[in-house]
Predict the 3D structure of the following.
Amino acid sequence: MTEISHHHKGILVQVIFFLVIPLFFMGFMLLYEPMGAREFISAGRGLYAFNVTMMMCIALLSLVGTRLPFHFIWRNHSLHWLWYAVWCLGEIFVIACFHALYLYLMYKGGIPYFSVLARCFGLDLMTMIYPYVILLLAIEVKAQSESGLEESSDELVRFTDTYMRVKLVIAPSAILYIAAEENYVRISYMDGEILKDYVLRSSMKAIEQLVQKHGLVRCHRSYFINPKRIKVLRKDAEGQIVADLAIPTASKVPVSKRYYDALSDLL
C-alpha cells in the first residue's frame, strides 16, 4: 500500500481541516438543504439556521479533537492511504455521533437516538466528503510539485522540523555527520571553509530516509556520517572505533561494531 506524504501530517494542514470542513458543512446546509435537512434539523422548532450553526461548532470541536491527535501520533510514523481513509471516515462518524446527540436532545427523545444517528451520518457523509476530497487532492498536488522540484535539484537536502517547516537547505557534500541529541538532531556541515552546526527539532528516524537518499550512512545508533568526508577509521585510546574526518577541527565520530563492516567496505 502507498504511504501518504508527510505534507498531510503538518500542523497547519490540520488547522485547515478543522476550519474548512465545518464552514463548508454550514454553507452547504444553508444553501442546498439536502435530503430534507430543513425539516429534520429544525426539529419541529423552526430553528434551522441556529441548529446548523450549532452543528458547525460541534463539527469544529470534534475535528480539533481528532486532527491534533492525528498530527502528534503520525508525524514521525508512516501511514498508508487505506488507513488514512479509515481515519477520515472515522472522523465523520464521530461528528455524526455528536450531531445526533444534539438533535436527539432537541427532539427531547421523541425519535430513537440510533435513528437520528443514521440520518446524521448520511447527511454528514454526503456533505463533508467534498471538502475532504478537495483538501486531500490539493495537498497531494502540492506534495507532488515539491517532490518534482526536489528531484530536479538532487544536490540539495531539505531538512524539515517536526512541523514540516523547511529549516535548512544544504548540499549533501557539505554535510560531515548528523548526531542525535534527545528530541533534536545536530547537523555538522561546512559553510565554505567554516565548520558549523545546526540543531534541528527532529529525530533520527524521521530523517533517515532523506539522508540515506543523499548518500549519508548510519555508523552508530546515534550518528549518520558522510563517507566522502571520512579520512580514516581507527581505534582510539579506549579501543573504540572512530572515524577521523578530513576536517581537522571536526569531532571524532564513533562507529559501532554493528555498522563497521558495511562502512569499511564502502570506503
Q: What stands out?
A: The first helix runs from residue 11 to 32. Strands lie at 157-160, 166-170, 175-181, 184-191, 194-200, 217-220, 223-225, 230-235, 241-245, 253-254. The two ends are 35 Å apart (CA to CA).
